[in-house]
Write a structure and sequence with these properties.
The structure holds 2 protein chains of 2 kinds. Chain A contains 8 helices and 10 strands. By secondary structure, chain A is of the alpha/beta class. In chain A, the strands form 3 sheets. In chain A, strands 5-4-3-10-9 form a 5-stranded parallel β-sheet. The longest helix of chain A is centred in the C-terminal third of the chain and has 21 residues. Chain A is globular and about 85 Å long. Chain B has 1 helix and 5 strands. In chain B, strands 2-1-5-3-4 form a 5-stranded mixed β-sheet, with no helix packed on it. In chain B, a hairpin with a 2-residue loop joins β3 and β4. The radius of gyration of chain B is 12 Å and the shape is globular. The chains are: A alpha/beta, B mainly beta. β4 of chain A pairs antiparallel with β5 of chain B, so a sheet runs across the interface.
Amino acid sequence: MDDKLVIRGIEFKSRLWVGTGKYKDFEETRRAIEASGADVVTVAVRRVNIFDRKSENLLDYVDPKKYKILPNTAGCYTVEDALRYARLAREAGISDLVKLEVIGDEKTLFPDVCGLLKATEILAKEGFIVLPYTNDDPVMAQRLVDAGASAVMPLAAPIGSGLGIRNPYNIKIILEQAKVPVIVDAGVGTASDVAIAMELGCDAVLLNTAIAGAKDPVAMAEAMKHAVIAGRLAYKAGRMPRKLYATASSPIEGML
Amino acid sequence: MKLTLNGTISEFQDGTTIAGLLEGLKIEPARVAVEVNLEIIRKQDYQKCMLKEGDSIEIVNFVGGG
């Protein structure tokens, strides 16, 4: 069964996308990403350490030939900063993909959707494949698509919170309306959260802390891999309707 | 000449190009992006882009992130 995720002609092997932050070291990053089966990894853009040139590079462990590198604009609170980081990322990287973040609040890391919309429009015009990290607002999701977003990435819960999908009904509405892929980004905590996102019909899940913050990140990465596959299959299979009362599975006929 | 490199002021030889700067720092150009006074310099221009007194240079690469 051909069930591949495609965004602007780019084919993705996995519906699980993972971040590369917060790991103990690069070796743990490498092992966790490999166990997750993800073919997209997010990265941040930061200054090169010019004083310690012996320090290792993330891309020595996460091979850009093997993984699609998705740079983010994490830490950007203004449109100007987000544009600057996105443009630098494109120059440093190999593709037009950008996970666009314009953060509006330090404590919740919720997006500044006004800035996000503006930045999406500008970058889409410059030829970027813009994947905006947004809140779970269906109206905003639609505005972002109108502005040129190639997918929308609503949060499940605050970044790094592990609270799981706080508003599945909004995600469902976003899914019904969106003409682009919907990727739940941020806030999932464990495998069941990922399965729920996929059962709702989301096209992919992007996570970082749920793996990096687990007691055993490599084992959790493998759990996430299975959760995405199970959730996607269940969505495609179509779940049974919920009922309030019991229906016996064994026949009455033939009973003594 | 004095240049501000990734936020730190340092002394460099007159006539240093971006290519020369990266070579001196042992930085592989393929995996970085370079900005001079807020303007991104394309990789094909590293050889000819001559730096001058007071320039502010940012060299960035990819690090772990979510």
